[in-house]
Amino acid sequence: MADRYVMSIDQGTTSTRCILFDQRGRLCSVAQREHRQYFPRPGWVEHDPVEIWRNVRRVVPEAMAHIGVDAGAIAAIGIANQRETTVLWDRRTGLPLGRAIVWQDTRTAPLVDAIRNRPGDEYFLDRCGLPPSTYFSAPRIRWLFDHVEGLEERARAGEVLFGTMESWLIYNLTGGIHGGLHITDPTNASRTMLVNLRTLTWDSELLDFFGVPRALLPEIRSSAESYGEARALLPGVRITAALGDQHAALFGQTCFSPGEVKCTYGTGSFLLRNTGTELVRSRNGLITTIAYKIATEPTVYALEGPMAVTGSLVQWFRDQLGLIGTAPEIETLARTVEDNGGCYIVPAFSGLFAPHWRSDARGVVVGLTSYITKGHLARAVLEATAWQTREVVDAMNADCGLPLRRLKVDGGMTSDNLLMQMLADVLDVPVVRPLVAETVSLGAAYAAGLAVEYWPDLEALRANWHRAAQWLPAMDPERREEEYESWRQAVERSFGWVRPPRRPSAP
Predict the structure, then answer these.
(1) Buried (b) or exposed (e) across 404-418, using 16+ Cβ within 10 A?
(2) Whole-angstrom Cα distance, residue 26 to residue 464?
(3) Within 10 A of 497 (CB to CB), how many other CB atoms are there?
(4) Closest by CA position to 23, among listed 6, 46, 10
(5) Distances (CA, A) of 297 to 126, 223, 254, 458
(6) Is 45 within 8 Å of 100 (Cβ atoms)?
(7) Residue 306 forms beta bridges with which residues?
(8) CB within 8 A of 20, min separation 6: which ones?
(9) Nearest C-alpha neighbor of 323 from the set 378, 371, 383
(10) How far apart are CA 351 and CA 308, in angstroms?
(11) E strand or H helix that includes residue 467
């Protein structure tokens, strides 16, 4: 077994990676390619599914070539993917019917506002565990039906297929129009607003509400089981796992016991708490979701608090304001001052996700004075991620009745040591980073390896987890609560912010 590897294909929001892991969970080879981001209108975000599939076809052989192996050395393939991003394609030709609508896209806001008024949040929370939001897939399907002539009729005739990115990749890997599998897993299906969380089946009432025909939808399979063999790229190699990226990170962090929590800090940030086989209904603005389902074992659930803008706020600070040249420079700049100088940034660029779910919120900067420097602004940018995390943790503690004891972290932003200390301070708990930082990819590999007995059980995976760094809280409690109150006041100012109409131009 020592010369065999598990392959993880991690299809993310900005790039696609292929990573090979060995039995000790060590990263042995990686290849990565970015794909283009399309912003055709304000609030619209799109990807080209053909470009993403083309990138997969490039990174898979590159990763194997780095260590000189062929398909015979690959024990199994696991896929992790950006969730909620919506792809529709032609059943006959296998070609997308336009660009994918990305999870960050807000074009469905008017539809979401309408259904929040009637039938309201409770109708959906009772069935699928999700509040109406531009974040999820079903409103996008409905929007496409309403805006692309003839599309709904074609879907009802069985001519169109829907999937999130794992469905699109598995379809192409297993043959496309020549017998390709049209499947998804419970973690991704649970993000559509169309799945009954208890039965893990497409919910007839929700399908009727959104007008989505069942023929459009993929078959729901477990997160880890043998789906079938690849026909493209790696002929004969079994595809045995698929998980949404944040669920894969939970798995990669080995958060297998109820109460264990991880947060991934990337473009957005996503905090998940394992609730075991108990489906916990949030009363405080969180999402009830599927953590994972391994073969025929009972479904494991989670509470999730997604934060839409964290790492992308640093990118905005770099690219739009031009105050730093590279993302890591923000830590150096923030360390030039001792505090934020009374300045707070609420990055509600397209509304706020958990625990507020306010699509009408807009970004604000509060507390500007002539004293504020770019160092204070840099610090406020980092603190925005920490305070958003605090809001989600408070909601999670209230829902579960047990306080957070430790936070496992991963993602690109965890290389910022100042931010990690801020998290420990505002949460008042230890923050720990694992030795293997690529936990999304690792989680997909772990699930795939379990399905083919490359790893025997969950305990073997736990044995692979090692701590690389830890940050302990050091902030004065009184100061922490004073600053948290200032943050909450800033958030309230972001609610309902409406840009005044433009004055008519002079004749």
Answers:
(1) beebbbbbebbebeb
(2) 9
(3) 14
(4) 6
(5) 24, 11, 17, 13
(6) no
(7) 270
(8) 5, 6, 7, 8, 27, 28, 29, 30, 63, 64, 67, 69, 74
(9) 378
(10) 8
(11) strand 467-471
Cβ neighbors of 387 (< 8 A, separation 6 or more) are 344, 426, 483, 484, 487
Determine contact, residues 206/48, Cβ cutoff 8 Å: no
Cβ–Cβ under 8 Å, residues 275 and 243: no
Task: Tell me the residue length of the chain.
Answer: 507
Report the distance separating Cα 123 and Cα 193, nearest Å.
Answer: 11
CA distances from 459 to 254, 456, 464 (A): 9, 8, 9
Q: Which two tokens stand for residue 187?
A: 């973690």
The CB density around residue 377, as the number of other CB atoms within 10 Å, is: 22
What are the angstrom distances between the C-alpha of 468 and each of 335, 415, 437, 462? 23, 11, 9, 15
Tokens 């169109």: give the residue.
160
Distance from C-alpha of 235 to C-alpha of 241, rounded to nearest angstrom: 17
* Backbone phi and psi for residue 64, each to the nearest 5 degrees, phi listed first: -70, -35
- Give 505's pLDDT tier (boundaries 50, 70, 90): very low
Q: By the 8 A CB rule, do 440 and 264 touch?
A: yes
**pLDDT tens column, 339-373:** 999 999 999 987 899 999 887 888 999 999 999 99
Q: How far apart are CA 168 and CA 277, in angstroms?
A: 29
Model confidence, pTM: 0.89
CA atoms of 177 and 181, how far apart (whole Å): 9
Residue 276 has pLDDT above 70, yes or no: yes
CA separation for the pair 37, 46 (Å, rounded): 6
Q: How far apart are the first and last CA of the chain?
A: 78
- Residue 235 is classified by DSSP as T
Predicted confidence band of residue 504 (pLDDT cuts 50, 70, 90): very low
pLDDT, one tens digit per residue, over 379-392 is 999 999 999 999 99
Nearest alpha-carbon partner for 389 in 271, 480, 486, 304: 271
Tokens of 482: 């004073």
Task: Provide the phi-psi class of 182: left if phi over 0, else alpha when psi is between -120 and 50, else beta.
Answer: beta
Report which of 350, 313, 310, 308 is spatially closest to residue 42, judged by C-alpha positions: 350
In contact, 423 and 480? CB cutoff 8 Å: no
Secondary structure of residue 175 in the 3-state scheme: coil
DSSP codes of every residue in 470-491: EE---S-HHHHHHHHHHHHHHH
Structure tokens at 386: 């920490």
The type of residue at 168 is W
